[in-house]
Every structure is written in structure tokens, then in C-alpha cells.
């Protein structure tokens, strides 16, 4: 088997879901020249919100890591919907990670690792990226994490 993004997804036991439709008046992604920007992706699994609430107030770091990984899976689903072939990803340039947090919670960067580690595993060197991790008081649908991505398209 060749070493492709699809083969790494299969080896990790990940089957990309259908890309989530927008929940309001926006588009799920936008392509501009050689750039692809995704809208924020929630931790959806099986079409349902998998992790809700606030980190540090009922949501554990482990649950936050899982939520971030699910956001990463959904980012790749949007990229596939936009590009057709994930191999056209030149590089993941940046993730912006929003973590619904109790005011005392300061490990947003650790939560973000759930997505960062997953995307580097699946995309390889193309997945190494810049990142911001920001604590926020709440997110849509009471999601614990929301992540947007910026890709360079080869």
C-alpha cells in the first residue's frame, strides 16, 4: 500500500464522514487561489455533537483531546469536499483552536494537541502547522471545542 493520506486514515481506523453542512448563513469552506480556509468545525461524530460543556468545569482534558481530534477529522472531511483529493493538500498552514473554558482553565494548548497530533499523524510533514489556542466562554451548540484550518493547496 502506498503512503497516502487515505492510507494513513485507513491505518488509523478513520473513515471521513460526509462534510457537515453549514448551520447558518456561511459557507463551510472557501478556496482562494492556492489557499483553502475551512469554517470552524465542531466535535461531531455520527452527525451529533460528541463533546459539550466547558473544560475545567465538567469536561476533562481527555474529553477535550478527543473533541479536538474529532474537529480534525471534520476539517479533513471539509478539505476532501472542497478538493476532491486530499493529496492536493500542499500543507496545513494554521489551526485556530477555540476551547470553551472555565475561567480557571489554562490548558487550552494541551486540548489543541488533540487536533495537532492527529493531523500531523495523517498528513505527515504536510501537517506541521502554526497554531493559536484560545479559551472562550462558550461555543455554538455548547460545543467544547471548535477549530478552523488554513491549507495551502498544491
Question: Explain this structure to me?
Answer:
- The structure is a single chain.
- With about 150 residues, the chain is of the alpha/beta class.
- The chain has a single domain (about 35-154), classed as RutC-like (60s Ribosomal Protein L30, Chain: A), CATH 3.30.1330.
- It contains three helices and nine strands.
- It has a five-stranded mixed β-sheet with strand order 1-2-9-7-8, with helices on one face.
- The chain starts with a helix and ends with a strand.
What's the quick description here?
The chain has a five-stranded mixed beta sheet, with helices on one face. Strands 3-4 form a two-stranded antiparallel sheet. The protein has three helices and nine strands; from the N terminus they run H-E-E-E-E-E-E-H-E-H-E-E. It is 30% helix and 29% strand.
Quote the CATH topology: 60s Ribosomal Protein L30, Chain: A
Mean pLDDT: 97
> What's the tally of helices?
3
H and E string: HEEEEEEHEHEE
**Overall CATH architecture:** 2-Layer Sandwich
Any idea what the shape is?
Answer: globular
What is the level 1 CATH name?
Alpha Beta
Beta content: 25-35%
Domains, number: 1
Rg from C-alpha positions? 15 Å
Q: Which percent range fits the helix content?
A: 25-40%
How far the N terminus sits from the C terminus, by CA atoms, comes to: 23 Å
Strand order of the largest sheet: 1-2-9-7-8
Low-confidence stretches: none
CATH superfamily: RutC-like
Question: Total strand count, please?
Answer: 9
What kind of sheet is the major sheet? 5 strands, mixed
Briefly note the structural class of the backbone: alpha/beta
InterPro entries: Endoribo_LPSP/chorism_mut-like, RutC-like_sf
Domain Endoribonuclease L-PSP/chorismate mutase-like: 6-145
Organism: Aureimonas pseudogalii
Protein name: Enamine deaminase RidA (YjgF/YER057c/UK114 family)
Amino acid at each position: 500500500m502506498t503512503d497516502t493520506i487515505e492510507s494513513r486514515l485507513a491505518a488509523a481506523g478513520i473513515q471521513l464522514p460526509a462534510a457537515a453542512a453549514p448551520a447558518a448563513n456561511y459557507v463551510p469552506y472557501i478556496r482562494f487561489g492556492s489557499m483553502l480556509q475551512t469554517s470552524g468545525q465542531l466535535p461531531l461524530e455520527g452527525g451529533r455533537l460528541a463533546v459539550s460543556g466547558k473544560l475545567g468545569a465538567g469536561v476533562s482534558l481527555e474529553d477535550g483531546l478527543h473533541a479536538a481530534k474529532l474537529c480534525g477529522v471534520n476539517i479533513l472531511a471539509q478539505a476532501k469536499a472542497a478538493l476532491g483529493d486530499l493529496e492536493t493538500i500542499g500543507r496545513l498552514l494554521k489551526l485556530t483552536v477555540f476551547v470553551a473554558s472555565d475561567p480557571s482553565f489554562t490548558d487550552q494548548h494541551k486540548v489543541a494537541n488533540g487536533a495537532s497530533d492527529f493531523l500531523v499523524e495523517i498528513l505527515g510533514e504536510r501537517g506541521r502547522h502554526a497554531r493559536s489556542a484560545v479559551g472562550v466562554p462558550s461555543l455554538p451548540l455548547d460545543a467544547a471545542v471548535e477549530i478552523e484550518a488554513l491549507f495551502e493547496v498544491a
